Amino acid sequence: MNSGELFPEFLLLLLSTEGNECIKANAESCGDCIQVGAKCGWCTDTKFLKQGEPTSARCDDMESLRKRGCVAAKIENPRGSQKTLRNKPVTNRKKGGEKLKPEDITQIQPQKLSLSLRSGEPQTIDLKFKRAEDYPIDLYYLMDLSYSMKDDLENVKNLGTSLMLEMSKITSDFRIGFGSFVEKTVMPYISTTPAKLLNPCTGDQNCTSPFSYKNVLKLTSNGQRFNTLVGQQQISGNLDSPEGGFDAIMQVAVCGEHIGWRNVTRLLVFSTDAGFHFAGDGKLGGIVLPNDGKCHLENDMYTMSHHYDYPSIAHLVQKLSDNNIQTIFAVTEEFQPVYKELKNLIPKSAVGTLSANSSNVINLIIDAYNSLSSEVILENSKLPEGVTITYQSHCKNGVVSVGEDGRKCSNISIGDEVYFSINITALGCPKQGKTETLKIRPLGFTEEVEIRLSFICDCECQKEGIVRKDLCHNGNGTFECGACRCNKGRIGRECECRKDEVSSEDLDRNCRKDNGTDLCSNNGECVCGKCECKKRDNPEEYYSGKYCECDNFNCDRSNNKLCGGHGRCECRVCICDANYTGSACDCSLDTSTCLASNNQICNGRGLCECGTCRCTDPKFQGPTCEICPTCPGVCTEHKACVQCRAFGTGEKKDTCEQDCNYFTLVKVKDRDKLPQPVQAFPLMHCKERDANDCWFYYTYAVNNYTEVHVVETLECPAGPDIIPIVAGVVAGIVLIGLALLLIWKLLMIIHDRREFAKFEKEKMNAKWDTGENPIYKSAVTTVVNPKYEGK
């Protein structure tokens, strides 16, 4: 077999086994093996390894281990598991029903699980989320009190009771708070002249001193108190257009005790008609220290605005998310594009258009709350090293999403249930410890799912390891999981060598066959004087033998199959199955396929070789040497069937389908298109006549199957054609008449020419007298007119 025939199968085999991670890992212990991937197992059978195979050959995929003779009971292949530790059902209560504390309301289930992770094996957990009815809400109104918001303050003064009334339609447990901000109290944000520090406004306007952020009212359920305290607030002023709102948002997020946040839905309404300063802008005022993200409220005033820079957007996102705060930006039309871009960076936030005097603020808050609460987005805490997570959401109306969209569901109404399938996969064991904690929670909610992760890093059989002098070379290793696990600095299947003596010349001599030059036949490495054969990418292929001189994949092939598919390859020699022989096991000893219809082998005219007849009589052919296409009478024998198949006539036209379906018919246009005899197979040319005296031509040949080529038109004798005969007679008569006329005309011409010549001759011979006659008088008389003058 040539290399061209071998290559396609070799390439296919290589592609199918490419990247066998279990083999490539060269795992020296069971623990190392199971961390390679979920398909890898470790054979603990002490007699499993063949001569020349290294210890790492015990690690292979499950199917290959079984094929190599390792029974299931001897294979270490631990699997991951999961256990639910707390599974409190989601709350099903109606508004006005039983009064529950916020911590007693459950919207996500289960709440706590433990997962045991095997490397490469995903564990799937299913979460259910149900939006509870009458869920408590805390709302903090943070307002810009720069001078441009003067008319807005008048409308906000009555916000408390009005908003309480509207929110009572959503929840019976609602609290509201109020805070205000202006700007950092340093140049160039405000004027630092003493007069401007007392009253930053111009003219006779009475304004309060500038400040960065002030917590006016802690969260309360007393709407009237909100109205009273807000009514006492005064407008302030600053120099530049952007405001210091980010300082205020940071303090509201991190000063939970001062604000009074509960573990319920937390809403922050940020109201302004200007842009914002962010990290780096503080340098204009000589402030270079980055914002530390900590609470700095004293007497409800932010006291470190002159010390720390504005927070960055990413810093705000982190703190808002950590504290489960959902932000509503109530801004004027002019700054809508800016805050919409900011909304895209802050999860669980919304933007509403604030009228010029904030008269629509209640409707804005209600609409934004409905938009935020109708969407649930899951987020997880920082993943441990080597752990991945994927989400799949099952939302309303059968909508299924994966990837980043798999984290969220939209258009959720109160009482709706949605589900999430979460796959958690470990890609190895963490360096620090074997347990980690992962938390998953819906953004904007305080509830979370706690998942304790433990990692399967060792096999059970490793716990049974023993130190045995007779197995691991005087105790230089621990016998565990069917093999020696060598101590540090030792090597070899039985830990018999030190690492510094692995490649000495004396030991290498034991790895050369017949004192040759090749170590381990170039198919392995000499370790401690013993050959450890190389491993192949295909787990079913391996080298073996004391010198790695044998393999099970370099035997002869037939039909692109090793040993013809009828034997096994041992040390590069095919061991054939019963009834097969040959170097590639491609010769069958079964003679049943050679029996002819007379029960003779090859019809007595050939030899049965490898299940196929070889005809010794050149006249005969076919699978059993029964066909003789060139024998006398072949044409006559098949005439009737060819006639009925090709022309629908003849003796067998009524039984043609039953009697004449034993050959393949091919029609050709003329006799030149009929195939010609070749040496490869005999072919008979036939010419037969039908009942109408018409001839038809065909060839009969047998080459694996019977094939007949026939000329598609009959060759019939033609009758006399009257018209040509009559036309020929008429034409003949006309031609004869013309010929006679031409002859007559020619004779007449000859005769006339002779007579004319005779006349000319006589004329030449005649003599005439040319003298004048004396008695001749002219008949002409001339008369002259005397009067004629010549005019």
Automatic annotation (TrEMBL):
Residues 1-19 form the signal peptide. SMART domains: INB, Integrin_b_cyt, Integrin_B_tail, PSI. Residues 29-459 form the Integrin beta subunit VWA domain. Residues 635-721 form the Integrin beta subunit tail domain. InterPro entries: EGF_extracell, EGF_integrin_1, EGF_integrin_2, Integrin_beta_N, Integrin_bsu, Integrin_bsu_cyt_dom, Integrin_bsu_tail, Integrin_bsu_tail_dom_sf. It comes from the Eukaryota. The keyword Cell membrane applies. The keyword Transmembrane applies. GO terms for cellular component: cell surface; focal adhesion; integrin complex; lamellipodium; melanosome; ruffle membrane; synapse. The chain crosses the membrane at residues 722-744. GO terms for molecular function: C-X3-C chemokine binding; collagen binding involved in cell-matrix adhesion; fibronectin binding; integrin binding; laminin binding; metal ion binding; protein kinase binding. This is Integrin beta.
